[in-house]
Amino acid sequence: MRITTTRSTRRHAAALALLAMSTAAGAADWSDTAISWRYGTRFREPVNPSDIKKHVFAFTHASAYKYGSNYFNVDLLQSDRNDPASLQQDEGAQEAYVVYRHTLDIGALRGEPIRFGPAKGVGLVLGFDWNTKNDVGYNSRKRMLVLGPTLMWDVPGFLSTGILLVRESNAPSGAFPPISNVRGRYTYENHPMFSASWGIPIPESWAPGLSFEGYLNYIAAKGRDEVGNPTGAETNLDMQLMYDIGSRFGQPKNRFRVGVEYQFWNNKFGNTAATTGNRGQRASTPMVRAEYHF
User: Fold this and answer.
1) pTM for this prediction
2) Which residues contact 138 (CB under 8 A, 6 or more apart)?
3) Residue pLDDT, tens place only, 173-194
4) Regarding the domain delimited by 7-293, which CATH topology (the fold level of the hierarchy) does it fall under?
5) Number of Cβ atoms within 10 Å of the Cβ of 178
């Protein structure tokens, strides 16, 4: 397995990393930075009938300060030959996917926490997604901005849920029609997204060193796509059960963790069974995962 990202991909990913990290820098109350690897054999891509093996390397940073929190993640994904990079080679496609979210704590701004029922806080989320991929069929260049309210729930660990307004565009450049006929950047209709993220430690009396983590995005249809097809509502559920193996060998708590991960992705990127011929728009992907925190 070989990762061979292009200079342009590395340059753009690095620039976005520096931008987000500079925003996150400052007088943090706490911060956590990690590198990770995960691997699965049942990834899917729209219109592709094959299961795809992927290695995913990630850099993740989370931090909090007086008025809110930051989350930043870069995934570098390497596919196998079932998701080729071009017609002229068997090497798999490479992708960089960047996510940044800033949550502004409204209660902290007003000097008093906003609490009601099981909710312990109200926030405003602002962020973006950015990707670039070199593959034979689509060559995604996604740009997405999100904005909306979120609730922080009073649970062990954390749980946040929000309704976000999404503005998304793409500039694909695939080798085959109709994608090969697309010119320039196409902007979809603005649409809402329900977003949830969590990190819940399992009680020590049940299973020492375990935690349940993940996210769920339910994204409404975004009108017509760049070739005129109707899009569908999208569900992306990703959850992990992680074990703190490092502490069993004298390492600080949560320094080195291993576990299993599962992703369910339906109507990936808004593609439906009708527009893909029921090929690749739905994935059910178990993975193994390891991460190191510093």
Assistant:
1) 0.89
2) 45, 46, 172, 174, 179
3) 987 888 888 889 999 999 999 9
4) Outer membrane phospholipase (ompla); Chain C (2.40.230)
5) 12
